[in-house]
Amino acid sequence: MRQLRRAATGRPARGRPHERVIPKGFAVNHAAAGVLVGVFPTRTARMSPAQRRLTRAAPGPAEGFTSATATVRGADLHVRQRVDSNAAAPIWVLLHGLAVSHRYLMPTAAALPGSVFVPDLPGFGLSGTPARVLTTEQHAEVVAAWMDAVGLAGAHVLGNSFGCQIAVELAIRRPDLVASLTLVGPTVDPAAPTAFAQIRRWAHDLLSEDPHQLPMILTDFRDAGPRRVLRTLGYAVGHHIERRIPLVEAPILILRGQYDPIAPADWTAHATSLARRGSTGDLPGAAHNAVTTTGALVAELAAAFALTLTAGHGRSIAHASQRAVEVPLDERRMPVEHTTSAAEARHVAEQFLHDWNMTDRTDDVLLVTTELIQNLTQHTDDGGELHLRLRDDAILIEVTDTNPQPPHVRPLSPAVPGGRGLLLVAATARRWGSRPAGWAGRTGKVVWAEIARRLPR
Whole-model pTM? Predict the structure, then answer.
């Protein structure tokens, strides 16, 4: 597209192979990078010279990768790709983060087995520049349309940072396209839910990154432009990935760099617990851009995860820290939007009961779920979460919302219609109540009800 057109017309290309490309107004050279290496912590991971050359090779061929172009929904996409002729080889789609491009994903891409496709999202890298800035969901729709156009289905999708949010949306909207998700440093941590908080964490992360990334990062930032970067950041913080992960059917592997301040350990552990089928691992020595500085290890763990799924070897893998996290079999979660209907919540609850092979008290569970979800949508301005837990003698239903006011049963005249939801809950549940809780950075509560099971004698 922009750079490719310049190459075709003989004008200087911004991304010619084996050249260090930097924005106007910046003067970064090898000597300066050497000084920075002495300033930054030596414990953090570094790219090799060969990897640095690979990041700036497009649009020329390098290590089996070539550049392809496609026009999808009016957007001109540049795709860096390596195609394996073996029909049984795995297919990988890599999605980059905010303000960057395919370039920083290349160390991971080169180490993955099979066919690998690394698109530049619209407005980033070597792709064309649409007039409007796309939302997270619109990026996912473009990726899905491109995958349809080139015949990619059942791919293993790997994302970093904002690319994780796009990957999650893709898996929700088009589960047929996604066999598994590998999320490296997923954003946005609900503990830092604003653009300012994310920028502050990003600035902190730079202290632990390989300074040799700087020319690449500046080139990518110039290609995107500050307006697109800031608008996209706004869409990212408004996306609430923590509410979307529970809707993903595909298995999820979540990785984080050891020194990543953007995706801290408590957030990635929580994100893993939200997944229906989740595993997690650490990447020693890496910061947020682990896909660049520890690409070989990221590829190894992602490929091993994909292999266990193909071989049917369970739901978790061994990884660098030798610590696996699985989704508990006796818990299920569902994010609830303000517009979520009670029928949707009932359908999900019924599916949960089916997964547990449990049919006793189904009607009671669905009735209580209906009433609690209706209370959430009628009395709060934001979403929340439905959480079901299977216990030996009961089913615990919990609904989290952003209204701190505790619920109470109101005495009503028989002539007054409606308003008896909590009476139904109290009459159906063995016990019920509420407790203070936070949700999406706001003070709220959890309303819970316990449905006794009919156990065999």
Answer: 0.63
User: Splitting the chain (457 residues) into consecutive groups of 10 residues, what average pLDDT does each group show?
Assistant: 38 33 31 38 72 93 93 90 89 96 95 96 94 92 93 94 96 94 96 94 92 91 94 93 92 94 94 90 91 93 84 38 41 76 82 70 88 83 82 87 80 63 86 81 84 68
Query: Are residues 385 and 340 both part of a single domain?
Result: yes
CATH of the domain at 139: 3.40.50.1820
Domain housing 11: 2-311
Q: Three-state SS across the chain? A: CHHHHHHHHCCCCCCCCCCCCCCCCCCCCHHHHHHHHHHCCCCCCCCCHHHHHHHCCCCCCECCEEEEEEEECCEEEEEEEECCCCCCCCEEEEECCCCCCHHHHHHHHHHCCCEEEEECCCCCCCCCCCCCCCCHHHHHHHHHHHHHHHCCCCEEEEEECHHHHHHHHHHHHCHHHEEEEEEECCCCCCCCCCHHHHHHHHHHHHCCCCHHHHHHHHHHHHHHCHHHHHHHHHHHHCCCHHHHHHHCCCCEEEEEECCCCCCCHHHHHHHHHHCCCEEEEEECCCCCCHHHHCHHHHHHHHHHHHHHHHHCCCCCCCCCCCCCCCCCCCEEEEEECCCCCHHHHHHHHHHHHHHCCCCCCHHHHHHHHHHHHHHHHHHCCCCEEEEEEECCCEEEEEEEECCCCCCCCCCCCCCCCCCCHHHHHHHHCCEEEEEEEEECCEEEEEEEEEEECCCCC
Same domain assignment for residues 193 and 300 = yes
CATH of the domain at 362: 3.30.565.10
Indicate whether 276 and 358 sit together in one domain. no
Q: Are residues 214 and 151 in the same domain?
A: yes
CA nearest to 31, candidates 20, 42, 23: 20
Query: Domains in the chain: how many in total?
Result: 2
